[in-house]
Amino acid sequence: MTDYSIWPATSGPGASSPDTPVTLGTEFYVTSPVWLLAIRFWRADTAITGAVAGRVWRATNATSGTAVSGSDVAFTLSGTGFQRANVASPVPLLPSNKYKATCFFPSGYSATASYWASGGGASDIVNGPLVAPNKSNSVGGDTQGCFGYGASITYPANGSGSGACYWVDVVVTDVDPFAGQTIVLGQAIETSTAGVVTSARAVVLGQALEVDTAQAVIGARAVLLGQALETDTATAVTPSRAVLLGQAVETSTAGLVTPARSVLLGQAVETDTARTVLPVSSTVVPGVLAASSSVASLSATSR
Question: What is the tens place of the pLDDT at every residue in 263-302?
């Protein structure tokens, strides 16, 4: 497994700056799908104390954004240098978004003035699929090195102006941590009233799938009803594989999987435009390919 961060382990200033409670962050984006493993920050000295918390935000623009679900962490401080806090479960991050890695500091922080304007970050920092843009290339044009004051972690809507660096970093991997996991039937699938996945992670019967904002499946493999299906770039199921060992499931209007018989055991299924499961004539025998490719698009079938 290959992990990536913005900075190497030994980067960072030698002294901290005192302040009132503040959220500080670093903007970044990825050039291919990755999974967030941890947030980290540079602790210049032991004057940085208190309950430091971390969160990744999806940046809508310079002044607003939404928290990335599952990215919240709490730090246990020890010594100096980079302090790392792992997320509870790897979180997918997509190349269609801009992100801000942030930490809430109750009493002090590490900083390097003008880093993103004329220092080490004057040119974009690139490490594999992970990119931290310089001051000019950030969202809004000058918000790399961002901050926001408040009694708890908040979206850092302000830019430092000078391109200051606050040494908040992430740890990501480009190796899918969910590959090959055991299929557990009966997982909840969160959908909106329009029947589309509402978050950047869809769970289809126990298998994590990453979707972009257009609900396209990232990657060439997905898992549905206990069987791996190959998909092309448009997420359509290719005729080379079929659904094996079907499972009886249905979803409520809230998108929760309930035990019922809307999908018959061992039977191929398709969906109409309203995403209702319809039985079709092509029967699938366990271990045998279907006579016809009657499975509709993966994203529709998975609901």
Answer: 333 344 444 444 444 443 333 333 333 333 333 333 333 3
Closest listed residue to residue 111, CA positions, set 13, 30, 250, 184: 13
Task: Give tens-digit pLDDT for 79-119.
Answer: 999 999 999 999 999 999 999 999 999 999 999 999 999 99
Q: Beta strands 158-159 and 146-149: pairing type? A: antiparallel
Cα gap 109→126, rounded to integer Å: 24
Q: Which two tokens stand for residue 19?
A: 């302040």
Nearest alpha carbon to residue 205 among 108, 123, 301: 301
Q: Which CATH number fits domain 3-173: 2.40.50, 2.20.28, 2.60.120, 1.20.1070?
A: 2.60.120
Tokens of 50: 């208190």
Across 188-225, b (16+ Cβ under 10 Å) vs e yields: ebebeeebbbeebbbbbbbbbbbbeeeeebbeeebbbb
Which residues of the chain are in CATH 2.60.120 domains?
Answer: 3-173
Phi, psi of 85 (to 5 degrees): -130, 120
What is the DSSP annotation of 19-53? -SSEEEEEEEEESS-EEEEEEEEEE-STT--S--E
- Whether the Cβ atoms of residue 32 and residue 129 lie closer than 8 Å to each other: yes
Q: Could you tell me if 144 and 29 are in contact, meaning their C-beta atoms sit under 8 angstroms apart?
A: no
Residue in the block written with tokens 């044009």: 141
Burial of 234: CB neighbours in 10 Å, binned 0-12, 13-18, 19+: exposed
* Whole-number Å distance between alpha carbons of 241 and 79: 54
